[in-house]
Amino acid sequence: MGKDDTFIILTVADNQERKNLSGAFESLVMFKERMGPDFKFKWVLVTRPASRIGWKLLDIAVKLNLVEEYVELSRGLEFNKLWSLYAAADAFFLTSKAEGLGMPVMEAMSVGVPVVASDVGAITEHLSDNRGYLIPSEYEFIDPYGNATRHFMDKKQAAHALTLIAGGLGKPKAETRIKKARTYIETRTWDIPVAQLDKAIRSIANVKKPLEEEELTAAII
Asked: Nearest 5°: CA angle at 87, between 85 and 90?
């Protein structure tokens, strides 16, 4: 926590429907109720506040009485500033309905921040084996845009996971999760994807030998 014992929750996510930011707000209302009136926390959201396809985030904060807790930052922060946010965070929180690689989740894991996130996409792989707190879906549906399945995280379980971290309950287990997350992230190198890219390019170009670095760069460009 911070010097004044304020619990810091960090979310790095675009302001668009797939990130389910309204669900994050609702989960944090439950978290606030669980922790009681004397508990201090801030939710730092790095996002795109003025998105035309997203939520009016401050309006939701006002409606749900989270104005004092809500801190909004625009995405595109310099590396050192973004890293300092991860370093200062006590928990990373992501409520995505669907997710690809989930780079912010991996960034949090690399810094040693416990992650609470939806059990979807690559996040499932990242946080499996107790490397974080995977939150199951409360319900799902197939949307009309490409028949994609959207998973709505169980808000009560999300609030419960944040409560465990904030309350220091099960601290040895939490520390074990952090260590396992760091070990996992250290294995996520570029070796495999680069080898896969090299193989695909050679297949398309009908080249049998591995490409030299200069040739691979030229092929990508």
From this structure: 90
